[in-house]
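Let's practice the habit of predicting before peeking. Look at the sequence and jot down your guess about where helices and strands might fall. Then scroll down.
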Amino acid sequence: VVITKEPGGKSLGLGLRQLLLEEVSSNKPNNSKNPPIQERAELLLYAADRAQHVEEFIKPLLAEGAIILCDRYTDSTLAYQGYGRGLDLTLIDQLNQIATGGLESDLTIWLDVDVKIGLERAQKRGKTDRMEQASLAFHRRVQQGFESIYQQNPHRIVRVDASGSQAQVHSAIQEILHRHFNLSGYPSPSSPESSPE
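Done guessing? Here is the structure:
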């Protein structure tokens, strides 16, 4: 099992992650040194990161039989740039196809939580990134986007109620992965055998 993320999964992505998310790229109007990233430019930067990440990292590992757990992928682009930013969904689908070479996720776990709770949690972690600093209305549109994507893809998206504790959410994710990968030879995360003593 290999864990990765977008943006920032490999070398090109690290620089793009900083550009896309860090405070130095903040969309504050008074920041003349670093003007706001335009919405189409933001979309193309995410696509560039994904194209590099898929070709350089994900595809070779899949060819070796690895299981890839990726924090964010094509559904996030649809939700954030499509529903959140209001960019054309068909265009984003086409761009995702180009960036991934048609590689789709087998399973998407959507951590669904009330927008206000999610933003409060982000603030408690300390420094918030550029996306987390966006308006409440933006985040509500993103959540509505994930809901719509979920409704259209029930065969591969599993919704997890993320309003519980970190341990509860972690356990729910483990159960989903256990079922999806048919780990019959291993104890279930909820079974007594897997509980730490």
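How did you do? The chain has one domain: 2-184.
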